[in-house]
Amino acid sequence: MKVGLLFEGTYPYVVGGVSNWGHSLIKNMKDIEFCVIHVGDTPRERKQKYVFPENVTDYFEFYLFAKYKFKNKRKVTKKFTNSLGKIITYPFNENKMGKDLYYLFKKNLNFDFTSFLKSEFYWSSILKFYEKYLPFENFPNYYWTLYSMMIPFLNSMAIDLPKCDIYHTITTGYAGISAILNGLKYNKPVILTEHGIYHRERQLEILRSDWIKEEFKTGWIKLFNTISSIVYKGAKKITTLFEDNQKFEKELCSEHSKMLVIPNGIDVERFKDIQYRKEKQPFTIGIVGRVVEIKDIKTAIKAARIAKDEIKSFKLYIIGPTDEEPDYFKECYEMVEIFNLKDTVEFTGMVDVKEYYDKLNILLISSISEGQPLVILEALSIGIPVVATNVGACRELIYGSKEDIIGPAGIVVKPKDFKAMANAIITLYKDDSFRKRASEIGKKRVMLRYRLDQMVGNYKKLYYSVVE
User: Fold this and answer.
1) Which among 141, 410, 421, 465 has a CA at the least distance from the CA of 305?
2) Reduced to 3 states, what is the DSSP secondary structure of residue 228?
3) What is the C-alpha to C-alpha distance for residues 387 and 398, in angstroms, rounded to an integer?
4) Strands across the sheet with 283-288, in order?
């Protein structure tokens, strides 16, 4: 069996939860071949952060904003664009459009979809929409905004991926649409696994952005919703890491029977020799992750300033690479200086996290968005209590699910609430019995539900079930 595993902007170039998950999955399925497929933005040289396991027998990469010449494919036909015109009508219903577009693409697979941008239909459509809805907008800006919205979508549809027995995409986005079109072309099943919910994350990103004009934000959001709807329709199975995620998937997917939950799992043997640090002098907190805006390191630094006033011997390690968003790292470093925390907060850069786990009294997650963080599972397996924001699966990991009522393994706070975050840290510092109980509960929870062998077994079973 050969599985095409599709990553968008992560593995093998970016270290993090999704990349670690993918690398671990491949490494522990030695009897299955993998083709790693990376979807990048623009062509450039990049250094791999992971060494592929031996069962990665193929690697393929394509770029969303590259100019490709699809010589062996037909230009879109008038019949195709006429059908398209009946589907894409304003006001846009992403649910219905996604399903109708899926069936249209199923019948029209060997097109150079980028030729759509040069079709008479495209030009007349954008002119009509401009004249009716955006007549006061600068037309060149309008034209190029639409182009930047459409070209990555169309490239993803037109690209030919290596032939595999299964396509397993880790997002509904451009990687997802590419998986669906190639799955249709080769008559192969597609599995979708969502760590975070792509259309929700893009919506948040678009609404917060200052580079997209307000007039275009709704269009961007509806495009990503439509892409997700197509992928949900075409995927044979849809997995996510925890049940709450399915609420958002059901916004755009009515076929609930194809949905299932497969939690992350970690190799508990890898951490069995690390002892939880019970000594409180200094009381040491660790954030394990990239120094990027979505991890909201600034809120953690604000919480550290408050905690420092209450806990005199206090240390915060920020353990992870600092080069992905250099401007954000600079702002965080300047905040540390302004708050007079240079002796308290340490940015370690890229290191082996195992060398720091035995130094930590608490793991801290300050993110504004997460899936099911592997670092929480790693910490809990060692017995490190966790303070985390209420995003993704953090609440379920710390407080347990309906199948798990053994108690809290830490404290959950609202995102951005640095005062609550600081108070949670102080509570765990002062309440020795709570901290000890949380440590024991965390270890028990991981062993019950979040072991690597359980996760790998579930995905292997899923792979064989879709090709039978």
Assistant:
1) 421
2) helix
3) 8
4) 345-349, 314-319, 283-288, 362-365, 386-389, 410-413
pLDDT in the model for residue 406: 86
Q: List phi, psi (to 5°) of 145.
A: -65, -45
Parallel, antiparallel or unpaired: strands 259-261 and 283-288: unpaired
Centroid of chain to Cα 217: 21
Same domain? For 219 and 282 the reply is no
Q: Is residue 119 part of a domain?
A: no
Tell me what pLDDT residue 359 has: 96
Spatial contact of 404 and 449, defined as CB atoms under 8 Å apart: yes
How many angstroms separate the CA atoms of 124 and 105, rounded?
A: 22
Are residues 249 and 279 both part of a single domain?
Answer: no
**Same domain, yes or no: 256 and 319:** no
If asked whether residues 310 and 232 sit together in one domain, one would say: no
Indicate whether 161 and 298 sit together in one domain.
Answer: no
Cβ atoms 166, 191 nearer than 8 A = yes
Q: How far is CA 458 from CA 4, 249, 323, 454, in A?
A: 18, 20, 35, 6
Read off the tokens for 267.
């190799």
Q: How confident is the model at residue 83 (pLDDT cuts 50, 70, 90)?
A: very high
DSSP state of 53: P
Q: Return mean pLDDT, the chain.
A: 94
Domain, as residue range, for 308: 268-450
The helix (run of H) or strand (run of E) holding residue 422 is helix 418-430
Over 90: is that where the pLDDT of 90 sits?
Answer: no
Locate tokens 């929700």: which residue?
Answer: 200
257 and 276 inside one domain: no
Q: What does the alpha-carbon distance between residue 334 and residue 339 come to, in Å, rounded to a whole number?
A: 9
- What does the block give as tokens for 371? 């899936």
Its pTM stands at 0.86
Cα separation of 360 and 362, whole Å? 5
Phi, psi of 241 (to 5 degrees): -85, -20
Cβ neighbours around 91 below 10 Å, total: 6
- Structure confidence at residue 89 (pLDDT): 82
Tokens of 369: 């968005």
Closest of 167, 169, 168, 231 to residue 199, by C-alpha: 231
Confidence label for 204 from pLDDT (cuts 50, 70 and 90): confident
Q: Are residues 167 and 294 in the same domain?
A: no
Strand intervals (E) in 331-373:
345-349, 362-365
Q: Is the dihedral of CA 395, 396, 402, 408 positive or negative?
A: negative
The answer, yes or no, to whether residue 211 has pLDDT greater than 90, is: no
Q: Are 361 and 381 in contact (CB under 8 A)?
A: no
Q: How far apart are CA 367 and CA 412, in angstroms?
A: 12
